[in-house]
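Fig. S4 source data, part A: sequence.
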Amino acid sequence: MRRLNFLKNMRRSVVPGVCAALLVLTAGAGGAVEADAAAEYYIGGMTAGFALPAGGTEIVELTSVTGENGVRRPAEEAGLKAGDLICAADGIAIESIEDLTAALVRSGGNPMTLTVLRGGERLECTVLPAKDVKSDAWKMGVLIRDMLSGIGTITYIEMSTRHFGALGHGVSDGPLPDAASAKVFACSVIGVNKGTRGRAGELKGLFLNDKVIAHAELFCGTGLFGTFDKGYDFSACETAEIAPVSEATIGKAVIYSTIDGTSPKAYDIAIAKVDEGDRDNKNFVIKVTDEELIEATGGIVQGMSGSPILQNGKLIGAVTHVFLNDPTRGYGISIERMMAGERER
């Protein structure tokens, strides 16, 4: 089973069905709450591009620095690794590439103490910068990024407030990034890597002209939440009321997903199991039965996390995971549990 990841690809037996590009969305709970069944919601299913702050500067690759005395690899010498998140330099917080550049300037070539996050553990490393002969700048031999981007699926938008929920599971294995600078972009699916037994597939998406359609305001263990901009056109969206997990039954249902272009479609699934009490965002076991979807994607793929699940015309949950040993099967979270995160805003 593997969660369909948004930011990084996590290797597990179940995969969250969420993101196709560079991002991973992680778990971390919160109890179910009673949702407002009287409110009406736009059904999601459209993919969106997310640009999220990394919560520091992430090392993408270790590189060499050519100085007057030859070639050095300062970061590698200090024991740093690709994937490390640099959180501070000499006790001063690092939140952007500019912050790290300023720290290197302040060092003047003297050793720097970096605080990094690796696999959930905080470490300290001492780095001796090298002066690059071409730029005459102090460098530590890393390629870094301070924003993480990927695609995921919008689950619902409340009609009266334009508040949305997406993904159905959390965003990062490390500390949750500050939502203040997170943006949501229009996105088009331009291809699919089909899922097969033992390997999760993924959607390949393209951000559309940097068009911001919404802003994220909260990341938590049940998804990503925010507000759509006033100018967004919901005229093509279907609407539905929500239903608690207690109304879900074994049998036919549908999911709304986008596997080509920008328009979601309904695809047939079967609910194989309902577990009201599960606290790991796995309230449903679902099986894709739609031959068109199986032919196109193999079943559930990364990028589909957040795809709304409807039964008897009501929104009951969202896709969250795919089974690695059978991509036609996966897990879903109940809508009331997912909305526990919405209530935290």
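Fig. S4 source data, part B ends here. Residues 5-34 have pLDDT under 50 and may be disordered.
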